[in-house]
Amino acid sequence: MSAATNRYVGVFAAAPLLAQLEANVIRWFAQIAGLPEGAGGFLASGGSLANFSAIVAARHDRLSEDLRAGVLYVSDQTHHCVAKAAVLAGFPARNVREIPSDGDFRIRLDLLPRAVAEDREKGLSPFLVAGSAGTVNTGAVDDLGALAEFCRQEGLWFHVDAAYGGFFLLTDRGRKAMTGIERADSIVLDPHKGLFLPYGTGCLLVRDAELLRRAHTVGAEYLPQLQSDPDFVDFCEISPELSRNNRGLGVWLPIKRHGFGPFRRNLDEKLDLARWAAREIALLPGFEVVAEPQLSLLAFRFAPKGVPAAALDALNRRLLAAVNARGRVHLTGTTTRGTFVLRICVLSFRTHFDRVQAALEDIAAAARDAAAG
């Protein structure tokens, strides 16, 4: 419907109804995240653009025009698009500080204050900390409450990349895991992940919508009269895009039609399936769970006795290829802390118990074949 109607929503006057639908979606998402009145944002193509715009807003709010001294902090598990966004926003790559993670793959809160203090002693200007609500490698959720308090005390912008995990806020377990996200200055969500919507549907929420406007507004004589009423949003004024397609209808319609109940039930199912898979993998001979599921993603590896540590990465790569070659499920791998691991991420409305059970069957069979070989 959005493609067929082909309406332009960069300015409110061009398509008032469709622009308002997107504004309604943003209000719903802000409520889910626990943000206060005055919050705002926009739908983007995905998390990469949303993270970029969040850093631009933080840069504009917290720093002078000289960006060379600005420093932002991420963990060694943060999605690479955050560092890429910082570079695109004008910061030297060396100004993105990578803080080690702990045994649960969460940013180490004991090291972060020291890094900020050392940078200030050098005459630099720390301005942003990025927390994760579901990392790509292991699905880890940082201690968002502690990060929020640290940022408040230090006067830093608190950003949360919740592209993968954010919509688990619809569930009781997800909300508990992400306690503190409601204190963020900006949050990135991906409806094309946690709401199972078509790709090309990301979201940025900002605690104070006016900060987006200040960071993104550039006037031009050929633009129509833009809105001064906060209820009528000209999205070209709060986002990088002037030409933008109508993303709002594709999000608004399924939520308006079904409510959030079906999405919540699906997300609860994914949490259950990930925990079931972790328990079953732990029972398989020779397997170890490297990262227990904090949401719906777990990391594991095959480490049978008698296999030299130096050979385990190659063994697990062969295991991954063997599982995927069976054609029933598709697993992915990653390297974390120098070790290659396999991952199961349950985040599709089509993935139910039978598919996860098939994955465990194929993992066990591939391991038996590897042991026999």
Descriptive account of the structure:
Helix content is 42%, strand content 16%. The protein has 373 residues and is of the alpha/beta class. Strands 1-7-6-5-4-2-3 form a seven-stranded mixed sheet, with helices on both faces. A four-stranded antiparallel sheet has the order 8-9-11-10, covered by helices on one side. α12 (309-325) packs across α13. The termini are far apart. The mean pLDDT is 94.
Could you give the topology of this structure?
Layout: H1 2-5, H2 16-33, E1 40-44, H3 47-62, E2 70-75, H4 80-88, E3 96-99, H5 112-121, E4 125-132, H6 144-154, E5 157-162, H7 172-177, E6 186-189, H8 191-194, E7 202-206, H9 209-216, H10 248-258, H11 261-283, E8 287-291, E9 297-302, H12 309-325, E10 332-336, E11 339-345, H13 353-372
Parallel strand pairs: 2-3, 2-4, 4-5, 5-6
Antiparallel strand pairs: 1-7, 6-7, 8-9, 9-11, 10-11
Helix pairs in contact: 2-10, 3-4, 3-9, 11-13, 12-13
Estimate percent helicity. Answer: 40-55%
Give a count of the beta strands, DSSP E runs of length 2 or more: 11
pLDDT < 50 stretches: none
- Structural class given helices, strands, pairing? alpha/beta
Order of helices and strands: HHEHEHEHEHEHEHEHHHEEHEEH
Average pLDDT number: 94
Shape: globular
- The helix tally amounts to 13
Rg over CA atoms:
22 Å
- Sheet with most strands: 7 strands, mixed
- Quaternary state of the chains: single chain
Q: Numbering strands along the chain, what is their spatial order in the largest sheet?
A: 1-7-6-5-4-2-3
The first-to-last residue Cα distance is 54 Å
Beta fraction = 15-25%
